[in-house]
């Protein structure tokens, strides 16, 4: 039987197409294998690089260990309900070392002082924090701590900064009650007027310098922290002049003055 014209050519074309498709599929397979191989190689290189970085950082940590932050759970000042005599003895003991390093220390006064008297009552030492509290008999007023840079002028000006802190607190909390508002308002007014409301200082000096300060007039106690204590990593609570026997809050039952 005679073949239909063109049928052989079509058969040959089909075979050629099949062979071309096989070559394309083979090439695609090779390309896919190549891509997978490249990805594997890149992953291996990335893993090796990461391992190298980790090893380098570990070595760097060994050669340059992080600096210790120092005292983190320590505090200056008496504990709640601590007998005053016990705290005074503890403060004296804290000054008994023989090293010549600088120490942070809390200075508590026999009576509150005016801000202008801070330089005299700091013994010329670096002041890092000033503690203010407006004294009103039988009225609990806020204790305000003001961090200050070096310099006598900024320590003296800290009373005004304390007044702003009290005002900010009053604005944040709002009028909790009439008594609270009156206490905060009179504290702001007296602090801005430069009242004798400074009840403590945090200073920095050597133990001999701190011992000399502890012997000065108007100084009730000086308590030092270990030399490795870092500013901002310890709590501070001054010994207030009204603490005579035990460190407990006083009564809060007297009328609040207008100013």
Automatic annotation (TrEMBL):
Residues 16-25 have a biased composition (Basic and acidic residues). Keywords: Membrane, Transmembrane, Transmembrane helix. The chain crosses the membrane at residues 43-63. Residues 1-31 are annotated as: Disordered. This is Uncharacterized protein.
